[in-house]
Specification:
3 helices; 21% helix
Length: 101
Protein backbone atom coordinates (compact mmCIF):
# COMPACT_ATOMS: atom_id res chain seq x y z
CA UNK A 1 0.00 0.00 0.00
CA UNK A 2 1.17 3.48 -0.75
CA UNK A 3 -0.24 6.53 1.02
CA UNK A 4 -0.02 8.51 -2.23
CA UNK A 5 -2.47 8.57 -5.10
CA UNK A 6 -2.20 6.56 -8.29
CA UNK A 7 -0.69 9.40 -10.34
CA UNK A 8 2.13 9.87 -7.81
CA UNK A 9 2.84 6.12 -7.71
CA UNK A 10 3.02 6.02 -11.52
CA UNK A 11 5.44 8.97 -11.50
CA UNK A 12 7.67 7.10 -9.03
CA UNK A 13 7.57 4.01 -11.22
CA UNK A 14 8.33 5.89 -14.45
CA UNK A 15 12.09 5.64 -13.90
CA UNK A 16 11.99 1.87 -13.24
CA UNK A 17 13.68 0.26 -16.26
CA UNK A 18 12.39 -3.21 -15.35
CA UNK A 19 8.76 -2.31 -16.05
CA UNK A 20 7.36 -3.53 -19.36
CA UNK A 21 6.21 -0.62 -21.53
CA UNK A 22 3.66 -2.03 -23.97
CA UNK A 23 1.08 0.34 -25.54
CA UNK A 24 -1.68 -0.06 -22.91
CA UNK A 25 0.53 -0.94 -19.93
CA UNK A 26 0.27 1.43 -16.98
CA UNK A 27 -2.63 3.36 -18.57
CA UNK A 28 -5.10 4.60 -15.96
CA UNK A 29 -8.63 3.32 -16.39
CA UNK A 30 -11.85 3.76 -14.44
CA UNK A 31 -13.52 0.44 -13.57
CA UNK A 32 -16.13 -0.81 -11.16
CA UNK A 33 -14.78 -2.36 -7.97
CA UNK A 34 -16.36 -5.71 -8.82
CA UNK A 35 -14.52 -5.75 -12.15
CA UNK A 36 -11.22 -4.81 -10.50
CA UNK A 37 -11.38 -7.38 -7.70
CA UNK A 38 -13.09 -10.08 -9.78
CA UNK A 39 -15.33 -12.94 -8.75
CA UNK A 40 -12.75 -15.55 -7.75
CA UNK A 41 -11.63 -13.94 -4.49
CA UNK A 42 -12.84 -14.98 -1.07
CA UNK A 43 -14.42 -11.71 -0.01
CA UNK A 44 -17.91 -10.38 0.55
CA UNK A 45 -18.93 -8.92 -2.81
CA UNK A 46 -21.97 -7.21 -1.27
CA UNK A 47 -19.77 -5.30 1.21
CA UNK A 48 -17.37 -4.31 -1.57
CA UNK A 49 -20.22 -3.05 -3.76
CA UNK A 50 -21.72 -1.17 -0.81
CA UNK A 51 -18.37 0.38 0.07
CA UNK A 52 -17.71 1.75 -3.41
CA UNK A 53 -21.34 2.44 -4.30
CA UNK A 54 -21.41 4.06 -7.74
CA UNK A 55 -17.82 5.27 -7.35
CA UNK A 56 -15.36 3.91 -9.89
CA UNK A 57 -11.84 2.81 -9.01
CA UNK A 58 -8.79 4.10 -10.83
CA UNK A 59 -6.69 1.17 -12.02
CA UNK A 60 -3.39 0.74 -13.84
CA UNK A 61 -1.95 -2.62 -14.87
CA UNK A 62 1.45 -3.63 -16.12
CA UNK A 63 4.31 -6.07 -15.71
CA UNK A 64 7.89 -6.23 -14.53
CA UNK A 65 10.53 -8.16 -16.48
CA UNK A 66 13.89 -9.70 -15.64
CA UNK A 67 16.27 -10.50 -18.51
CA UNK A 68 13.49 -10.08 -21.05
CA UNK A 69 11.05 -12.36 -19.23
CA UNK A 70 7.93 -11.22 -17.36
CA UNK A 71 8.32 -12.10 -13.68
CA UNK A 72 5.53 -10.03 -12.08
CA UNK A 73 2.08 -8.81 -13.08
CA UNK A 74 1.01 -5.63 -11.26
CA UNK A 75 -2.39 -4.09 -10.58
CA UNK A 76 -2.50 -0.65 -8.94
CA UNK A 77 -5.84 0.35 -7.38
CA UNK A 78 -6.93 3.72 -5.97
CA UNK A 79 -8.78 4.26 -3.71
CA UNK A 80 -8.49 0.89 -2.04
CA UNK A 81 -10.63 -0.87 0.61
CA UNK A 82 -9.65 -1.77 4.15
CA UNK A 83 -9.32 -5.49 4.89
CA UNK A 84 -12.77 -5.51 6.53
CA UNK A 85 -14.33 -3.74 3.49
CA UNK A 86 -15.69 -0.93 5.67
CA UNK A 87 -13.39 1.99 4.76
CA UNK A 88 -11.88 3.36 1.56
CA UNK A 89 -8.27 4.55 1.77
CA UNK A 90 -7.17 7.41 -0.51
CA UNK A 91 -3.79 5.90 -1.36
CA UNK A 92 -2.88 3.15 -3.81
CA UNK A 93 -2.97 -0.62 -3.33
CA UNK A 94 -0.32 -2.60 -5.20
CA UNK A 95 -1.30 -6.16 -6.06
CA UNK A 96 1.74 -8.03 -7.36
CA UNK A 97 1.48 -11.55 -8.79
CA UNK A 98 4.79 -13.39 -9.07
CA UNK A 99 4.89 -15.35 -12.32
CA UNK A 100 6.62 -18.74 -12.10
CA UNK A 101 9.41 -19.40 -14.59
Amino acid sequence: MAPTGLDDVLKELSADQTLVRTPDAWAVRYESATDVFGTAGRYNRWLLARLYGSRQTRVARGARADRGRVVEAWTLISPYPSADLRTLHPGTMRLILNVSP
